[in-house]
Amino acid sequence: MERVLNIVYGGRGTAINDMLFNSKEYEVELYIVDKQPNPHNKWLANEALGGGRHIVDPGLTNDTIAEFARKHKNEIDFAICPNEGPIIRGIRNILEWELGIPTVCPTKEYALEGSKVRQRLLLKEVAPEANPEFMVFDPVAYKGNKGNMEKLYKDAEAWIIKLGGPTECVVKPDLPGFGKGVGVGGEHFKTISEAKDWITTDGKTIIEQRLYGEESSFQAYCDGLRLVPLPETRDYKRAYDSDTGKNTGGMGSYCDASENLPFLTQADREKEIEIAERLLKHFTKEGRNKGLLGMPFYIAFMHTAEGPKVLEINSREGDPEHLCTLQRLDEDLVGIYYKILDGDLKSIKLNEKTAVATYLVPEPYPEKDTNTRLLSLDAAYNLEDEYAKTEDKKLKIYPASVGTRDGNLYALGSRTVASVGVADYLQEARAVSMNGIDKLYASGFRFRNDIANVKHVNKSIMNMKRLRG
Description:
Elements lengths: L1 E7 L1 H12 L6 E7 L4 H8 L6 E4 L5 H11 L5 E3 L3 H5 L2 H8 L4 E2 L11 H11 L7 E4 L8 H18 L5 E5 L9 E2 L7 H5 L8 E5 L4 E5 L1 E3 L4 E3 L4 E2 L2 E3 L3 E4 L4 E4 L10 H18 L14 E7 L2 E8 L6 H8 L4 H10 L11 E9 L10 E3 L2 H11 L5 E6 L2 E4 L2 E4 L5 E7 L2 H15 L4 E2 L7 H14 L2
Parallel strand pairs: 1-2, 1-4, 2-3, 4-5
Antiparallel strand pairs: 6-9, 7-8, 7-9, 10-17, 11-12, 13-16, 14-15, 16-19, 17-18, 19-24, 19-25, 20-23, 21-24, 22-23
Helix pairs in contact: 12-13
């Protein structure tokens, strides 16, 4: 019996729990600290296989996680944390160093996601060609009187003009915005005055060159010495079809049957891997660095006419990207985690399936909404069972931001449930994902209808051809 502690938030954590529980090589008992009262996770932990344990902590605080882990430390074999908040706050340092529980995630020292400024300065040293032009504005350096703060805005205005004006810049807070804190010129603001409204006065702000091209998400497992890349994925960050609306945590994603995406060349893929390897080498000059276990370099790239540029570096698995790459694993996830902990991750077997993930979300997500909406997963689960009888297609339903009340399931404020389609060909996988969404859809919810559709994929292909001349 393998007993695993998982710190869970959203569909990504549910998908990992599902794969661990359904391991074909190990019998797994789950211990779960959940940000939300997800009944699927509760069932997996408390009622299946004799039961682990499940608690809810809306803040996923280190104190609560540590208290829970301390209570069960003699039972837990290892822990995983695919969520940025606890990683940045140093949960591995506590679980591993104080409680002796081996943990798969970076330590606090290597949680690059904690500071966008640190990322930009690191890339300036390690991979300058992948860095856009940028400048950091720190209000601490300007504090003292109103005139000094006015100088910050004046300097910011001069830099915005140097970049080509407000439509040619991006404004980012230093601290994590969880996919939603970035202002893009020409979309979120169009004037210098509007751009300056995105500058935070209680922390550092980066104003950088706006990049044009096509996005991809690079993910790789790391054992502290080696990187093993997973298939490339495309994330759909914007709230509405045709890439419009505010940024969200991700409305869906897809990966193709190869390790690349239809609009990228092999040279693009190799350049991404090279940049990630340079980052690893920077931190492993003295040999294996155990601070980098898990997925320390999940990198969002923008592929431009000048080559791949780094939008941001994350220190955990992607959501929704990992919903797709998990479906490509052709070996047991528990075994992969053990290889990471043992420093023996040399390769990972992958199948040649395609996968498409689509999130159902409450309207008006990503705006805050305190209303709760009832929904039912029964029809989607029945369809999942029907696909399970086929050889070439699969549907996976992953409840994310949900809870129960009076025996009914209801949506909370974030992404509600993911429908992941798996098939031999991309459009088949998309059709399966859409079939799942059709069974989930109810009044008060919405989804993006263009994730991995032919029009959007071809648009990306043609755009990259145009950029390459």
